[in-house]
Amino acid sequence: MIRIEIDEQSGFCTGVIKAVKAAEENLGKEDSLHSLGEIVHNAEEVGRLWEKGLKPIDYEEFNKLHNATVLIRAHGEPPETFRHAEDNNIRLIDATCPIVLKLQKQIREQAEEFGEDRGSILIFGKSDHPEVRALVGQTKGKARVVRGPEDLDKIDIHPPLALFSQTTMNTLEYTRFQQIIKEYMREHGRDPERELVIYHSICGQVSSRDSLIREFAAKFELVFFVSGKNSSNGKALFEACKEVNKHAFFISTPEGSDKISLKDVASIGICGATSSPMWLLSAVKDRLSARLNITKS
Q1: Which among 142, 228, 253, 259 has most CB atoms closer than 10 A?
Q2: Average pLDDT of 113-121?
Q3: Which entry of 38, 45, 77, 131 is annotated as an active-site residue?
Q4: What's the topology of domain 99-202?
Q5: Is 14 exposed, middle or buried (0-12, 13-18, 19+ CB in 10 A)?
Q6: What pTM does this model have?
Q7: Is 131 a catalytic residue?
């Protein structure tokens, strides 16, 4: 009989679990509950919580709010968000990931140490990502966001340098960039050994998913990777799946598996991003079992 297995290492990371739990605990206690941005990059989970009463809002809507309750998602927020809330009687439920909070504190303290005129803070990450926006906010806008060598020529860098990473970036890419910036400094007559401090700020839980998901995907003839289409983590982990299993398919809903033939397949693996809820992976398994007329034991 065909084997269908869910990856036990998949599902929400700790930070997302905390945010979703905070939302569920407060739904029903408030007349209305908003989240500043979608609580997670997964439309199915956002839809589930919407039905319970959690309404995502954007910054334009947030800036018009008064006397309301708003949940801060795991990505965190810059200081101005908290100031606006205080000025407008908005109660904040802060579900910022503890790892992100620690990084915010490190960056804020580094910015205070450098002051206005000394040093440069660089953040390896995606400039449009909400976590990065919050990190830059800890420095009053002084930090600069970088991804590749071309970015170094676009900004004014004053050593000493402090290099941080967005917590969800790829570890290998961050390591490569560290070598790039060291070489860049040498080419400009600076000593990276004395004038560069590198912070290893990528979340260990996120970074370990790459190797774990490769190991899982290699065990099956066919793999369904479940993720929201807008999840950066999902895109990266799916590529890891594809590298070890050419029969890996990206789906966002259980119905997405219907178009993939299961003929002569002996084993199917189901895995997902750190933003993919375990209930959704289970729903995919149920869908596949129904197609194959497999009854639950």
Answers
A1: 228
A2: 92
A3: 131
A4: Cobalt-precorrin-4 Transmethylase; domain 1 (3.40.1010)
A5: middle
A6: 0.90
A7: yes
